[in-house]
Task: structure prediction
Amino acid sequence: MLKRSAETTDRLFHALADANRRAVIESLTRGPATVSELAAQLGVTVAATVQHLQVLQETELVRTEKVGRVRTCQIDTAGLRNAEAWLARQRTTWEHRLDRLGAVLDHQTKEPES
Amino acid sequence: MLKRSAETTDRLFHALADANRRAVIESLTRGPATVSELAAQLGVTVAATVQHLQVLQETELVRTEKVGRVRTCQIDTAGLRNAEAWLARQRTTWEHRLDRLGAVLDHQTKEPES
Result:
């Protein structure tokens, strides 16, 4: 279970480690787009765009829906939330550690000299 | 400049896309550790740990300092902040879009029938 979750997180950050895939996310946060529109925005082929979209779908960063012959893409906030949650956990642990260190220093300075 | 920044962000998310490197970050948020301690925690060789640390240093996720023969590692919050900032920007853009859509719907329901 833990292993599977680690692999999911690996794939999530891997999906974000590509400028074109991040450009797709940046575009879709402003509104839905078709695959052709995204391909034009990226300046790459439709085939390359479809490959990026597959990676983004598997990691819950993008959702797509086909109506007739047109596939429309929109942001899936689940992936972004998962990535933010992992980073926020690290920050919280770190900040708690700083708080504890601060409390120790505070206690030491208040300690009367003997 | 934009290209360089995109490559930096590529490398940052790539650094996070590895369970062992994330384990190093999770460990260091709780306190500094030596390379040997991290290697023991990960259950990998010191050489493999050093390679992970190089990737983490280049992306400002970890700082290391050598005193005598011992290299001590600590968290570098710059990398975590950069990753969180990118994700937060996407969420903000998305939330603004939802607010605008909400305002449009609100306006439509308030519009008197003609």
Notes: Chain A touches chain B through 31 residues (CB under 8 Å).
